[in-house]
Amino acid sequence: GKDYLVNTRITMHYPECVVPLHSDGFVARIHIPMTEDSSLFYWGECWDRSYHWEPGNIYLINSHITHSTTNFGPNIRANLLASIDDNKILDILKL
Q: How far apart are CA 43 and CA 69, in angstroms?
């Protein structure tokens, strides 16, 4: 994946964590939840839509759209994240 994925990392959000609304530089980002929790992923300027992501699934997001996350559960939430080189997104979608 080194030809396609950029800045691969594991993020950890502690209980009561709220990541403020923001947008990111890369168009596409892969999220793979690693823990079962009660956190939510939000889209939109006013937290318009919310999603609960299941561990082990792969979520491909457009990180230019304003988004946020929360962790109101009792445990640390961990996700594997990687940005996708904008020039490689169509190649990945062909897989």
A: 9
Tell me: the pLDDT tens digits for 3-16? 778 889 999 999 99
pLDDT at 27: 73
**Which residue has 């889209």 as its token pair?**
43
What's at 5, amino acid-wise?
L
Residue 38: φ, ψ to 5°: -110, 25
- The amino acid that residue 32 corresponds to is I
pTM: 0.80
CA 18 to chain centroid, in Å, comes to 14
List, for the chain, all residue ranges whose pLDDT scores fall below the cut of 70: 1-2, 26, 95
- What is the C-alpha separation between 22 and 73, in angstroms, rounded? 22
- Mention every residue, 6+ apart, whose C-beta is less than 8 A from residue 51: 40, 41, 42, 43
Q: Which two tokens stand for residue 19?
A: 């990541």
Q: CA nearest 29: which of 69, 59, 72?
A: 59
